[in-house]
Threonine/serine exporter family protein (Paenibacillus dokdonensis), 252 residues
Amino acid sequence: MEDSLQKEREIMKVCLLAGQIMLQSGAETYRVEDTMMRIASSYGIDHTHSYMTPTGIIFSLEDPQPMTRLNRITERTTNLQKIDQVNSLSRRISTGELSIDEAYLALQEIDRTQAIYPLWLNVLMAAVASGCFLIMFRGTWFDFIPAMLAGGIGFYCSVLLHRLVPVKFFAEFSGALMIGLSSIFFVKYGFGQALDIIIISSVMPLVPGLLITNAIRDLMAGHLVSGLSKGAEAFITSFAIGAGIAFMLSFQ
């Protein structure tokens, strides 16, 4: 009986760690629940229950003895690579390739993995994306470089301030503030022409697109609490971006 309970605890640890990594990396709620259920089923536990929000996971196993655990989610980001790695690991578990201990060690390795792209590359890609959005919004090539610079500066300030002050909405407000300031500067001194298109293009890397998409998908899948929570977070993020731009335009 003791061996059975110990095995159940180990399975619980594997399921919760897999769910935690996926939820922290930006996965949809229904995908996380399905992955945890499949892992538990692969190790011989078919009766499981889960309830999760963007800030926590409650997972329960019924056999051989009822057991419930709670994991708190304190930080959330976007890392599709980690989601893919956990999905791949789940498939290997389903085919019987990994024991419980091997799966847990592999999940710990995934969890320890840092971002594969350095900050300078993220800033560069945000700048390039801002310039491409400007062309998509029918801006002129004359405004391409100002949009790139404003988008890169705003994204860098947002990331930097989030590291100094771990308040996501303040960081996004400050990033939008810098975008507005940079865009007004470029247009005022003749380096740009269409202020509105430059600003709209530059804030696109800050827009919570994945969060909005996941909120809608969770609502469609019936996860109302998670869907509404993510929708509220996306709304407040959008409000912070808009407020930062509006604050700077008020001084123009």
In short: The CA atoms of residues 16 and 181 lie 44 Å apart. Strands lie at 48-53, 56-61, 67-72.
